[in-house]
Structure formats: structure tokens, C-alpha cells
Amino acid sequence: MKLLFDYPWYCIFFCLLAGVLYSALLYFRRRGQDDGMPRYLRWLLPLLRLFAVSLIAFLLMAPLVRRQVGTQEKPIVVITQDRSQSIPVAEREVVDKQIRSLSSDYQFVVDTFGGKSTDITAALSSIADRYAGRNLGAVVLATDGIYNQGQNPAIYAPSLAVPVYTVALGDTTHRCDAAITHVRSGRIAYLKDQFPVEVTVQAYGLGGARATLSVARGGQRLFSKEIHYAAGQHITTETVILEADKPGLQSYTVSLTPCEGEVSTRNNSRSFAVEVVDGHQKVTILAAAPHPDISAIRQSIERNPNYEVEVQLVGSGLKNDQVKESSLLILHNLPSLGSQTDLAPFRQIPTIYIIGTQTDLGRFNALHAGLEIVARARKADDVVAASNRSFALFTLADDVCDRLEQLPPLQAPFGTYRPSGNLQSLFTAKVMGVASDRPLIAFCQQEGVRHAFVVGEGLWRWRLQGYQMTGSHADFDQLIEKMVVYTSLQTNRDHLQLTHEHIYQENQPVTIQAQLYNDNYEPVNDPSLQLTLYRADSTGRSSGGTYEMGRSGTGYTLHLGVLPPGQYNYAASATLAGKTHKASGSFIVEELNLEELNLVADHALLSTIASVTGAQMLTPDQLGHLPQLLRDRGDLKTVVYPHTRYTQLLDLPWLLILLILLLSLEWAVRKYYS
Q1: Which residues pair with 134 in a beta bridge?
Q2: Could you read off the pLDDT of 9-22 as tens digits, one per residue?
Q3: Which of the 8 DSSP states describes residue 74?
Q4: Which of 1, 413, 441, 479 is least buried, going by the fewest C-beta atoms within 10 A?
Q5: How far is Cα 411 from Cα 359, in angstroms, rounded to an integer?
Q6: 8 and 120 share one domain
Q7: Rounded distance between C-alpha atoms, residue 600 and residue 604, angstroms
């Protein structure tokens, strides 16, 4: 125990001095008067008053008492029960009854996991997180050993560093059944492309039977194949090739016709969804004259089948209507010194400017695209690339950047470069071996439209030299692809924008967020925002409701919770400054029937978990013996956690009692002799 206070230690003498003065003034100012009091009391009473006053003065400094105390905690035993659909209700009731009868020698904590899916490792990990730093003595895992999500729990269990007793539930008997156990597909496919879907079928006890595996969308069958089951356990994987013929979210159903004697038919079908993106884009290359750069760029872009490239020479007449349909423009030496082509109508189209010796810099600067170059003379510099490692708009591998720095120089205009404030350089120019801050390849965004700049011509040399260095055009192609993908991506300029996941699992809560912008594209959330949600049932009829989205920060948020499986469409609207802004979209909630895929308990896994953690596997009826098993271990001990406790002396009741006794005794003696 230690006393702590905020005042210097010598203040204690002032407390004593206050007691001495008070006592002296009270008892010795009338010295010599005979009150019949014995001599020893004449000295005892001043000492009592001195001690009482000094103690009160000391307590006024609010001293603290620091003490080391210990808190005892019994071993914690967490009993976590599997509540998934594969566990029989009768076995759950037996476990519950046994838990209620357990003695109180330990801190028994009951927990549950499972539901539409089972992740045993996640359940164990949650226990480890919640009881970190606590006296966790053991874990009791009551389950059938069937897990359909997460990693193998037998691998994770030893990291708990406590014994894991397993309670074997469920039925280990193999029954006649067939199921679609896995459906693997990508989440995104491009329009008019084909995408593969892998379907795994597993059957047991149906040898000689036949079933039809089919894939359908909206009631229309897209694929079917007859499957012949082998004797015993049968596993087969079929690869189905589907065509992405419609844009948007597409929901598909994989089904397996049931056979006679199957224990369950709920696992004979599974649904999945794919977002089909219309990724086809048109890229138009406009050039003042033929140039080898054009061919090099075109070959790199056409490697991606989603891009259609058209080349136009402005001298042969410009087809404005076709150019306006482009997703991206690449201007080579435009505006040029030898052409008066008007580029103003295309300012809202994302553009890559390749600036060379024939570029009319005066007219280029008038476009206010994000970079201005004031020419000092009709000269050109030979510049090589120096990578900017802090570039963050997209990633380009460091080894690719290193090789691009070794490529031949480009010919760039000689002059003063004036970049806009938001221009970011992927490569800067190195002139005669000296690094500079001049942009060589750079990007910016003006009025919601993205622009890129290659300040120099001669890219065809990069493509050829890159092939000589590595034996492929991969580095150059990757650079051009990254530039095209980033620049062609249009930013959303709608006043009302909604964001959400396109595909949700059945047990995953659905959240939709929205942002409303005024005419200056500043986020506001003063107006109310209504969202109407529709869900189509199997008959084609739709049902839903209207919700008012809640304000959150500068935007809106709507928590819809867990929704039934199906495809949902929504429409949102808000009125701002007399204008009604609308937005619509859709998402899919996938059915999650993982618990129906495997109905055979895996007690071998439970035995392994218990073995690797130094415990043992029990049956539900043996759960009542658990306290004795824990006592027999000898390593589950009550732990004392030391900690420091701070208490004000004013809060100690014995000090108050002491003061009352001192003052009462003094008063009683003085009253007696007065």
C-alpha cells in the first residue's frame, strides 16, 4: 500500500503546523486557570486536538491509497452447440438437459453456432477472440462434424491451446441420396462471351439409376445431360458452357431429377447468379497522318476482344457521328499544324492525347484538357521514362516500370510545361540523363471526363525494343491496356446514385446506400429519399414495399436485413430544388441450402479434433461426466489476476470513525471538567 497525492511532501509539515497552532490557541492561551483537570489530561487533550486537526488538513489534500489486489477467476468452459439443420432436434434436447445438470465447479458458458451454413473453425475462432486473456480452461464442441464453410477445424483447433472435448451428434449412416454439392462460376461475365460453370454431383446408394442434370434460366432450359450413377459412392463433375446473351444480373438454376428412394430432394437443385456486363467498347484513333505509333497502339488494344478499334485520318474527312459513339478517343498529333479539324464537339469523350512534333500546341492548349505546353521553339527533346513510384490511380508492376525505363527515347516538344492541379504522372521525362518533373505519361480528370497524355511520339520503338528484351510484347501491351481501361471509364454524373452488392447470400443482410448531389455536385441529404422494392415470385407476380431511406453522414442508408431468395428490383426517387431525380437497379439473393448437401455425420473428424487437443470425444449421454473429466486433468486451475486499485482516503470509513472518536473523547473530557 502506498499513499499518493498531488502536493509536495513537505506540505505534511504544514498540516502538523496547523494542528499545533489550533491546539495551542485552544488550550494554552488560558494557561494557569485551575479547572480541576489532572495534569496528564492537560497534555492529552491538546494532543488529541492536534492529531484530529492535522488529519483533517491532510485529508483536504485528497490523498490516494494505491493497493495491489487480486481477483480470482474459475476456469471457463465454453460449451458451443451446433444449431444447423443437420442436427436432430431430439439430440439437441439431450445436450441441453445434460448442460443444465452440470455442477458449478467451473464457469460453464453456453454458446451456439450454425444455421443455414456451418463453419466450425469460425465458431472456435470466435471463442478464442472473446476469451483472449481470460482463464479459458476447455471448449466443448457439440456437433455432427459436418462443415460446409471455412477451413478444416482439426487444423485450427490446436491453436486454441486448450482441450477441445467433442460431443458426437448426428447419424453416420449413409443413406440413398443424390445432391449437387458444388456450383463454381465467375461472378462477372462480358456480354456475348461464353463462360464456364462447373457442377459437381455426388450420389450414394443409387447404383444403376439415371438422372438428368440441367441448367435453366427463367424457366428456359439451356443445358441438359443424362447421368448414370455408379454403385456405392458416385462423384462426377460436369463443365457447362453458357453464353452471356443478356446484360444485367442473370439468375440460373442447376437441377437434378430425383430418383426413387432418395432421402431428400431439397439438395437436388442450386441457384447461382452472374452479372453480365456490356464491356464492349469502341475506341477511335484519330491521326493527322499515317504513323507507326498507330499500328503499335492498335495491336495492343485489339488483344482484348471487348474493344473495337477504328482508325480515321482527319485528312480524308472526319465522320463526326461515328466518333461521338466512341467510348475513348486517341488523338495522335492532333490538333495538328497541317489540319484545322475542330475537336471541340468531342470534349466530353475520354481522350488519350499523343503529343508529338506535329501537334499544334496553341490549339491544344485552348482545349484546356489538363496540360498546357508553351513552345519556346520548333524543337524536340529526346526523353526517356522515369517512373513515379507514388502514382496511385492504377498499379503497374515494379519490374514492368523498370523495363520501360530502359526503352528508347520519345520525341517530345521543347517548351514550358504547365500541368493542372490534379494531373498525376505515371512517368516523368528524363532529358539527357537528368530527371525532371515534366510529365511523360500522365492522367487527369476535367469536368468529370478523364484524359491521358503521352508527351512524345515514337511508341512503336517501345513495342519493338520491349520484344527484343523479353521475347514478348507483354510490357507494352499491359501499359496500353491500363491506360485505355482507366481513361475510358466514365465517372457517374447522375444526381442520384445508389450502391450495393449485386449478389447476396440468403443469410447475408442487405444494405443499400445512396448519395444525392445538387447542381454543383455537392452531396446533400435534406430531401426525403423513397425506395420501392419489388420481388417477383415463381408465378411472375411481384410484391414489395416502399421504404424511406435514413440519413447517414452526407448520404442515405437503408438496412433491409435478411431477405428471402429471389431477384429484387428497386426504384428510388428524391425531389431537390423542384427537380425529381430517379435511379433504379436490381440485386439477387441466392438460396443457401448448404445444410442439405451432406447429411452424414463425420465423427472421425470430431475424434481427430479431440485427439490433437489432448481431450476426448463424448456421446450426448456422457456429457454429465464432463466435470469429473476436467477435475482429473489437474491443469485447470483458478487464476488470480493482480491489479492495482486506487482509493481516496476520504472513502475509508475507519478514518471517519477515528475522527469521531478523537473529537468525541476530547469533548466528553472537557465537558466533565467544565
Answers
A1: none
A2: 888 888 888 888 88
A3: P
A4: 1
A5: 12
A6: no
A7: 11
